[in-house]
Write a structure and sequence with these properties.
The structure is a homodimer. Helices cover 31% and strands 28% of the residues of chain A. Chain A is built from 13 helices and 19 strands. Chain A has helices at 3-7, 19-23, 38-41, 85-102, 137-140, 143-154, 166-170, 215-225, 239-246, 259-271, 285-294, 316-330, 351-364; strands at residues 10-12, 28-30, 48-52, 58-64, 70-76, 107-112, 121-126, 129-134, 158-163, 176-181, 189-193, 196-200, 229-233, 251-256, 278-282, 299-304, 334-344, 369-376, 394-400. In chain A, strands 15-14-13-16-17-19-18 form a 7-stranded mixed sheet, sandwiched between helices. Chain A is globular. The relative contact order of chain A is 0.09.
C-alpha cells in the first residue's frame, strides 16, 4: 500500500449496485448506489476518494460529491494514481496531441471535460490565448497545476478564466472572470474557420465567445450555399452565414436577438472583405421569420441554430414544440429544391425526437423534405461512450422538394 | 375525371389501416392493409394504380405489388398525375440540380430511388458515363423514356444498364448487363474523389463499380491520417486508403479478399503518383487482422468497412457479434492515441446497436475509446424521412486513449 492510496477516503457501492457497468467503462457512480455511512457523508464535495465495489474490490479513484445525483466521477482506473501535476499534464498533452492532428491552425476546443478524461474542465483555444472554464471543485483546487500544464503543452501566452457557467455555480463555486496568464485581449480575437473570420469576444461573450462545436456543420452548410442566398437564424457571431459567404454564397442575412453578437458578425464579414454580401437583422427569431414570410423573402439555404429549447427532461415536450414551430416558420422561406438545416443543442432532445419535430413542422408548412445530412459536434468534442449527454449537439439538413 | 385517372385500377385501404400515416408523408401502403378482392388481386405487379383510403378518398398514384409486403409504392400524391416522359424528366432534372450544387465534378450517386422520388431506380454518374440499376418492373417498362431523360438532363454520352441486383431478381426481372447509350468503357473509369483517383470497373465490378456513399467518411478519415500509417480493411478499390494517402498519410495498407479489387486500388494509387506509399494484402479480413497483430504491426488509423454482416433482421444478432469481433481484432493494431473507424452498411443494425457492438469489441481488447465522429452516407444519397432503411450506412470513429 502506498501512502497516497491509504490516505484517501473510501466510497463503497451497495451490494445491489451495478459494479459491472463501471468496470466496463462507465465513469460515474450514482449517489444512490453508494453506501452513505457517517464516514462517507463526511467526505467533502470535490475531494478525492477511492471507489470500491460491495466486495471491497477497488474500481478506481475519483472525485466525490456524495450528496449529488452523481456520487463519484472516476479520474483514474488505478486506485493508487497520484493526481498531481504530472497526471494533469499527461491528460492535457494527450488532448493537445489529438487536436494538432486534426487542425492546421490553433483554434479549437482543447479540453472537453469527461471526453478528455478531465471531468468539469472546458478549455477553448484561440491562437495564443486559452479560455478555461473550471466547473468543478477538484479543478479549482488544482488551478495552478492546470494552468502550468496548459502553458507547457500549448506554449500559449494568455489564459483567461471564465468562471461564469451554471455548472460552476451549481458546484457552489464563485462567479469570476480573471486573467491567469499573460494579458486580457484588448479587442475581439480573430478566429479563422472554414475560410471565414469570426470575432470572439472572450472577455464578455456568450460562454467562451465562440462555439467551436458547429464547425463541421458550418462546413457542410457552406458547401450547399455556393451561388445562393442564405438566411442564418440565431446567428450569434455569424456562424453559418459567414462560412456560407466564404464558400461563395451570393448573400447572407444573419438574424439574432443580440445586437452585440451581430456587431461581431459584421466585424467578421468586414475583416474577410465580405461585408457587401452580408446583412444583419436584430430581433426575435420567431417574429423575424414571420416578417420575412410576409415580405415574400426566399432563400436557397435557411439555417436555424436556436439555443437549447429543451435543456432538461421537464422541458422536453415544450422544447420539441418550439423546434416544430421554428421548422414550420422557416420552411416557407426555402426556395423549391432549397435546403433547410435545423440544429439542436438540447441534451434532452435525442436525435429521433428532434428530427421528428422538425419533420412535423416542415409537413405543416406543406413542404416535402428529404434528409441529406445528419451532423454532430466536431472531433474536438470527444464523447465518453457511456455519456450520451455529452452528445448534445445535432444538426439535420433537409432538401425541400420542388 | 380525366381519362388517365379513370383508366387506372384502384387499390383501397382496409378501414383499420392507418391512412393518416400515408397522408402525412409515408410513401408506402403495406400489402396487409389493402382490400384484396378479386379485382385488386388481378392488378399485375409493377402496374400503376390509384390508392384510396377506406372512405374512397384518393391518397395518390403508385406502383402496385399487391402480393408483396409493400403493396403499393406511391409515385405521386396527385392521383391524376401522368407518369410520362415529362414526369420522369422533372424528377431526374431535380436530382441533377441537387447534385450539381453539391459537387464540382460529375461523379456521384445521381438517382437514389425513393430519396429522389423514383422507387427502385439507382443511377451513378462517372463523368460522361451513367450506370443505371433499374430494380423494379415499372422502370423496366419505361426504360426508353428514362434513358432519354437521363441523357437530356446530364448530357452524358454513355449509359450502362447494370441489371444484376438481388432486388431486381426478387422482382422477377432478368439478369442483364447492357449498353443502352454510347459505348461500354474499354478500361476502368478514373474517378476523382477527395484528392485521390479511384478506378471504377463499371462493367464487371461490385454493384456499379464504386461506392460513392462513403465519400464524406473517407474525407473525415483522411484528415486523421495526415502524417500517419493507415490500415484499410475491406478496402475494395482502396476507398479509405487512397483518400488517406491523398491527404498526406505516410503509408497505407489495403486488405481485401478480392484480388481484382486490390488491383484496381493499386492502379488508382499509381494514377495519383502514390504507389510508393501504398501496399495491398489479399486475404480474409479476420485472418489478416490476426496475422498483423502477431507481426506486431501498429497503425495510427485503422478503418474497417465490412460488407453487411446484418443485412436482415434474422441476421442481426450474428451480425452484431461479427462487428464486435472485427472491433476486438482491430483495436490492438491501433497506436496509443490513434483512431479506429468502423463502418456498417447493414440495414438491420441501427446506429446505437452497431456502436454498442463496436464498444464491446474495443473494451474486450482492453482499450479505452472516445467517440469523435459519427457519419452517414453523403448528401447524394437523400433519404425519404419515413424510410429509415435507406439510411443503412453508418460510420463511427473512436480515438483509443494512450
Amino acid at each position: 500500500m502506498t501512502a497516497p492510496l491509504s490516505s484517501l477516503p473510501i466510497l463503497r457501492l451497495k451490494p445491489k449496485a451495478d459494479a459491472k457497468r463501471i468496470r466496463h467503462g462507465h465513469p460515474w457512480a450514482w449517489g444512490d448506489d453508494l453506501v452513505l455511512d457517517r464516514r462517507a457523508r463526511a467526505i467533502p464535495a470535490g475531494a478525492l476518494a477511492v471507489l470500491e465495489d460491495a466486495e471491497r474490490q477497488p474500481l478506481g479513484l475519483g472525485v466525490a460529491t456524495v450528496e449529488g445525483k452523481i456520487g463519484l466521477r472516476l479520474l483514474d482506473r488505478d486506485p493508487a494514481a497520484l493526481i498531481d501535476q504530472a497526471w494533469l499534464a499527461a491528460r492535457i498533452q494527450a488532448a493537445v496531441d489529438a487536436r494538432t492532428k486534426l487542425y492546421d491552425e490553433p483554434y479549437y476546443r482543447l479540453i472537453h471535460a469527461e471526453g478528455d478524461g478531465l471531468p468539469g474542465l472546458i478549455v477553448d483555444r484561440f491562437g495564443d490565448t486559452l479560455v478555461m472554464q473550471p466547473n468543478a471543485i477538484w479543478l479549482e483546487e488544482r488551478e495552478a497545476a492546470i494552468v502550468a500544464a496548459l502553458r507547457d503543452a500549448t506554449g500559449c501566452a494568455n489564459l483567461i478564466k471564465n468562471g461564469t457557467s451554471r455548472a460552476r455555480l451549481a458546484e457552489g463555486l464563485p462567479e469570476v472572470t480573471e486573467v491567469l496568464l499573460g494579458d486580457a485581449p484588448t479587442a475581439p480575437i480573430q478566429v479563422p474557420m472554414n475560410g471565414a473570420i469570426y470575432m470572439a469576444d472572450v472577455m464578455a461573450g456568450q460562454k467562451t465567445g465562440l462555439f467551436f462545436d458547429q464547425r463541421e456543420n458550418h462546413a457542410f452548410a457552406a458547401r450547399l450555399a455556393r451561388g445562393g442566398r442564405v438566411l442564418d437564424v440565431f446567428s450569434h457571431v455569424g456562424g453559418f452565414g459567414l462560412a456560407s459567404l466564404a464558400a461563395g454564397a451570393v448573400h447572407a442575412l444573419a438574424v439574432d436577438a443580440s445586437a452585440p453578437a451581430l456587431q461581431l458578425a459584421e466585424a467578421g464579414a468586414e475583416a474577410a472583405g465580405m461585408a457587401d454580401r452580408f446583412a444583419t437583422r436584430q430581433g426575435d427569431a420567431f417574429a423575424t421569420l414571420e416578417a420575412l414570410a410576409e415580405e415574400g423573402a426566399r432563400f436557397d439555404l435557411v439555417i436555424c441554430d436556436p439555443p437549447a429549447f429543451a435543456p432538461a427532461k421537464q422541458a422536453l415536450e415544450a422544447g420539441l414544440r418550439a423546434y416544430e414551430r421554428i421548422a414550420k416558420l422557416a420552411a416557407p422561406l426555402v426556395t423549391e429544391g432549397g435546403v433547410l438545416m435545423l440544429c439542436s443543442c438540447s441534451h434532452a432532445a435525442e436525435l429521433p425526437k428532434f428530427r421528428a419535430a422538425c419533420l412535423r413542422g416542415i409537413g405543416r408548412a406543406g413542404r416535402e423534405p428529404r434528409l441529406i445530412y445528419t451532423g454532430f459536434a466536431g472531433p474536438d468534442h470527444p464523447q465518453h461512450p457511456a455519456l450520451t449527454e455529452t452528445g448534445y449537439l445535432k444538426a439535420v439538413a433537409f432538401r425541400l422538394l420542388p
